[in-house]
Specification:
Largest sheet: none
Distance between the termini: 51 Å
Number of helices: 4
Radius of gyration: 35 Å
Strand content: under 5%
Keywords: Membrane, Transmembrane, Transmembrane helix
Structural class: mainly alpha
Length: about 160
């Protein structure tokens, strides 16, 4: 047997080497894509948890800044509603002396409803602001990760 029959030609070896190089490049790309997808999923979960926690804390702070306890305000609203219903029945029996009480309770109920509405609007605005800030922070963190390099193996 001659040496040329046992060894493939240079062109065949070069073609096989380039094919193996492209396969390795494709495998590395797939691995990087998988790592990026998993990192994105983990990051989304952490951002949701973080924004939920921050929104809850900020909402509690906003409610505390108004000096109202939402549970107490809701209880007062229910009591006022019940009193108004009872007064309407009494008005039918004694209309003249109860008009003033009904007006006062109506004003009180309107004030409470306006307060609760402003609390709802604050919560929505604060939640939106927190989500925007968390998204910006996550984007900045991802941008910073783009410039990461592996640690030197010799160190």
């Amino acid at each position: 047997m001659t040496q040329s029959q046992s060894q493939p030609s240079f062109g065949a070896r070069l073609g096989r080497t380039i094919g193996n190089l492209l396969l390795a490049l494709f495998n590395a790309t797939l691995l990087l894509f998988i790592v990026a997808a998993i990192s994105g999923i983990v990051l989304i979960g952490k951002v949701r948890t973080f924004s939920t926690d921050i929104a809850g804390d900020v909402t509690q702070a906003a409610i505390a800044s108004t000096g109202l306890n939402p549970a107490d305000a809701l209880a007062e609203l229910r009591v006022a509603s019940t009193e108004i219903a009872e007064l309407r029945v009494a008005i039918e029996e004694r209309r003249s002396d109860l008009d003033a009480r009904v007006d006062a309770l109506g004003v009180r109920l309107d004030t409470m409803q306006a307060t609760l509405q402003s609390l709802r609007e604050r919560k929505i605005a604060i939640t939106d602001a927190v989500i925007d800030k968390a998204a910006t922070a996550a984007g900045t963190a991802l941008k910073d990760l783009r410039d990461c390099r592996p640690a030197d193996a010799g160190s």
